[in-house]
Amino acid sequence: LRLIYTTTAVQRKNVGASGPEKYTEAFIKKQIEEFNLGKRHLANMMGEDPETFTQEDIDRAIAYLFPSGLFDGHARPMMKHPREIFPEQRKIQWGEDGRPFHFLFYTGKQSYYSLMHETYEKLLNVEKHQDQLIAQDLPLQKEKRNLAGSRWLTKIELEEMLLEKLSDDDYSRFIQLLQKLTDLPCSDIEEKYIQKFSKELPVQMQKVVIEPLQYDEQGVAFSTGEGRRKTARATAVVYDNGTGKMTVNGKDILHYFPVLQDREQLLFPFQFLGRIGKHDAVCTVSGGGRSAQAGAIRLACAKALRSFVTEKEVEFMRQAGLLTVDPRVKERKKPGQEGARRKFTWKKR
Amino acid sequence: DDKLLSEPLSHPDFFNVKELFTLKDLFDARVHLGHKKGCRHRFMEPYIFGCRLDQDIIDLEQTMQHLQLALNFTAHIAYRKGIILFISRKRQFCHLVECTARACGEYAHTRYWQGGLLTNAHIQFGAGVRLPDLIVFLSSLNNVFQTHVAVRDAAKMNIPTVGVVDTNCNPSLITYPIPGNDDSPSAVELYCKLFRMTIIRAKDKRRQSEAVEELR
């Protein structure tokens, strides 16, 4: 051990400078034992079997025993497993003789640099394999990987994985290296390694379930849809084999919507699909004003028409904006201003 | 224990590092090739054999002596279970150096050097950290062709250094400089091979001596 000159200021334990509290292994173990013991006590208190007492039961029991009116969920009393409460931290990095465990310890960011080292090794592997295939005159395979369906891990997710702080430059360098690896023709060999760092993007349309057609007593196919715009709520029932008649709240659209603009809005979904004279519609609407009701019925009809139409046309409708709820509502008036945005008249003196 | 530590010091070449390399090996690995005359550092003039077509040629006789001293020193450090840190800021050889370090069971740093790694170690790493006992430079310049900061920091922290110095490097603060080429892949592979063999040899010798001591 070398004598290194340090001042007494550094040798004194500066509580603030040591960083966030470090939890030792023994401490966490003790917390886990106490948690298990407390779980059994709680089960006994609630009169349930201690062996089959799950986390949901614990949450319910705590909510019953300690009712709280606090809004923030994190501020309410909770009893969770210590691994969820105490964040995962790095333990001591070196052994008894002082030698660090990891060969890149002296770089400062050992997990990040070891990740870069590993990824580069995979890259070299793939290049070697490629050279072998070229030497044997075999074709280089390239299965089209679905690029749109996956994304790389975000910086925060990577930080959680490595338990180390990263800078933006580090993160972008790592992503560039991964991208370089995936762009090589023979990168299928390291598919498993690459999948560790990519996540599936759920495709928007897969979530929405299009309802099947229903048939009424005469055998005519129909479908329902709901729509809203501002404060108006509408439901529409669209029948097949129709003549293009539309009824709103029992009245014909010519009577209910005297203005041309509103009737154009109603007909837009049918006109977009080219099915103007082919469907009948019976709608009910309440709330809102003239224009809002028209918009609500338009959305309801478009949603109902999804069941009559192919998936491609549904995608066209979605891209045309026929299936999106218009999120615009009246903005509230703020104090100190005349309206939502208008300020009071400013007088210089 | 005392005998274990004092026995290697009695021989000048206890680990027999002379047999690991010959002058022909150094020549074949292009260790003698230096940079152009304009890049020459003043302090490297004693180590230069001559200059041909403006390119400096390093004197391999001197390189042999320096390399033998340096390898002997690393072997002694490895025998006494010291921590060896390999440093190279050449991007081409970063992976090679890290693999060499991992193969020896020692440590490597081929990335951006954060300012206080050696001088501010107690705060950067933790309270009881142990600093390296030897630093080996496979290229003593950083990416901007200036002397690596670790040379100066090691000198500040009393850590001995072994370093391959090319004709454009400053060999002053390095304890065991090895004048030689640090840019060719063949030369750097040769150095990595030599260091790896010495360290493994020294560690094996240590394990053998300890086993012999235990038997007694």
> Largest inter-chain interface?
A-B, 25 and 28 residues
Q: Which percent band covers the strand fraction of chain B?
A: 15-25%
C-alpha end-to-end distance of chain A = 77 Å
Oligomer kind: heterodimer
Strands of the largest sheet of chain B, in order across it? 5-4-6-7-8
Assigned CATH class of chain B: Alpha Beta
Q: Return the structural class of chain B.
A: alpha/beta
User: How large a portion of the residues of chain A is in β-strands, by DSSP E?
Assistant: 5-15%
CATH superfamily of chain B: Glucose-6-phosphate isomerase like protein, domain 1
Strand order of the largest sheet of chain A: 3-4-5-8-6-7
Number of strands of chain B: 8
What is the percent of helical residues of chain B?
40-55%
Mind summarizing the main beta sheet of chain B?
5 strands, parallel
CATH architecture of chain B: 3-Layer(aba) Sandwich
The CATH topology of chain B turns out to be: Rossmann fold
Biggest beta sheet attributes of chain A: 6 strands, mixed
What's the CATH architecture name of the largest domain in chain A?
2-Layer Sandwich
The helix tally of chain A amounts to 13
- Unreliable stretches of chain B (pLDDT < 50, length at least 5) are none
How confident is the prediction overall: mean pLDDT of chain B?
Answer: 93
Distance between the termini of chain B: 12 Å
Which descriptors would you attach to this protein?
heterodimer; A: 349 residues; alpha+beta; Ribosomal Protein S5, domain 2; 3 domains; 6-stranded mixed beta sheet; two-stranded antiparallel ribbon; 13 helices; 11% strand; extended; B: 216 residues; alpha/beta; Rossmann fold; 5-stranded parallel beta sheet; 3-stranded antiparallel beta sheet; 8 strands; 41% helix; 17% strand; Ribosomal_uS2_CS (chain B); structural constituent of ribosome (chain B); ribosomal protein (chain B); Ribosomal_uS2 (chain B)
